[in-house]
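Continuing the batch. This is chain 6 of the set; chains 1 through 5 are on the previous pages. Same settings as before, nothing changed between runs. Recording input and output for traceability.
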Amino acid sequence: MPDFHEVRFPLDVARGARGGPERQTQIVTLASGREVRNSRWAHSRRRYDAGLGIRTLDALAAVVSFFEERRGRLHGFRWRDQLDWKSGPPSQEPAATDQVIGVGDGVASVFQLCKAYGAGASAYSREITKPCAGTVRIAMDGVELAGSAFSCNLSTGQVTIAAGSIPPLGAVLTAGFAFDVPVRFDTDAIEVDLSAFAAGEIPRVPVVEIIP
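Output for chain 6:
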């Protein structure tokens, strides 16, 4: 079996989950009191607790079934982050000009989907590897390409431009898309006390992003 299953965690449970990005920063305090800070990770990593979205026994059973099918931490899967799952603002549909994914050199035909956070020299570029089917739109110098002019690998986020539409030197390629986060369970055990669950206690179901 592949180590990643192209299946999405139940959306109704994910909507009630809690979590977001984390980074690892090393801070050394010098004798003078000044700090030296160093980022140990090149990329942020997202963590979620899916247990907070479980409100009924049916939802709990669905999560346990999903957990068993993934064999605990063994296989990855798709996760919908309700705050951050579009190339643009959450309230708007993806537009073909949302994100710059490359500049043409007249030869390259493969480009990686990515999303920028912030602007200017300090902006963070996040590689998007799990776009959603039917949502990817591509534009060249602001003009949207027809669907036949490109293809997108939904397992890697790589966009391939057709031979007749390869971006010429200096042409700016942009993209719009919806996407999922590649994750895995961060535990090999889900412990449930049904009497406590009935009293309102939520089981902990940790999920962590898989960094490509």
